[in-house]
Design goal:
The chain is mostly beta strands. The chain has strands spanning about 1-15, 20, 25-35, 40-45, 45-55, 65, 70, 75-80, 85, 90, 95-100, 105-110, 110-115, 120-125, 130, 135, 140-145, 150-155, 155-160, 160-165. The N and C termini lie far apart (about 40 Å).
């Protein structure tokens, strides 16, 4: 499917166990929006030029795999959610690559995160696992603020202004 120039391209509300696969999404506000929606699979999507590429408030146990997000204000935003997995995505030339806000127990792994203002921005979260990612050419590779018990391991940081920046965090 191809979606262009819509406010909401794919919107799930209180919808569980869905597959969102192989879509081309470009221009405007929200690419894929999952609200109060659990156990969904978002895979092999191409998202460009959106305010929010993937937006996930209050949704749990979702899988985001093999998506490519480019030139978004916020490529992937996970808020007030838990137990989501982001794996093998490509996130390039966005303001914020991955934004985890008030989340816990999420896994971010095997992702190429390049040329963003913030590669991973993780405020007010706990118990997230960030590992085996390639994080390069960002101003902030991984930025954590007011966080606890997050694990950051086995990532490759190259040519970021700040590879890992911790502010008021205990990890």
């Amino acid at each position: 499917n191809t979606y262009t120039n819509n406010t909401y391209d794919i919107y799930l509300n209180n919808s569980n166990n869905n597959d969102i696969i192989e879509n081309q999404i470009a221009i405007q506000m929200y690419g894929i929006y999952l609200e109060n929606s659990d156990t969904n699979n978002v895979q092999n999507n191409q998202i460009d030029d959106k305010q929010f590429g993937i937006y996930d408030p209050n949704s749990n146990y979702n899988q985001y795999q093999n998506n490519t997000l480019t030139n978004c204000e916020q490529a992937i935003t996970i808020e007030y959610s838990q137990h989501n997995t982001l794996q093998e995505n490509t996130i390039t030339e966005n303001n914020i690559g991955i934004y985890l806000n008030y989340t816990h127990n999420n896994t971010i792994t095997i992702i190429n995160i390049t040329n963003n203002q913030y590669g991973i921005l993780d405020p007010d979260s706990q118990d997230n696992n960030i590992q085996d990612n390639n994080i390069q050419d960002n101003q902030y590779g991984t930025y954590l603020e007011n966080t606890e018990n997050n694990t950051i391991q086995q990532n490759t940081y190259t040519n970021n202004t700040y590879d890992i920046y911790l502010n008021n965090s205990n990890n």
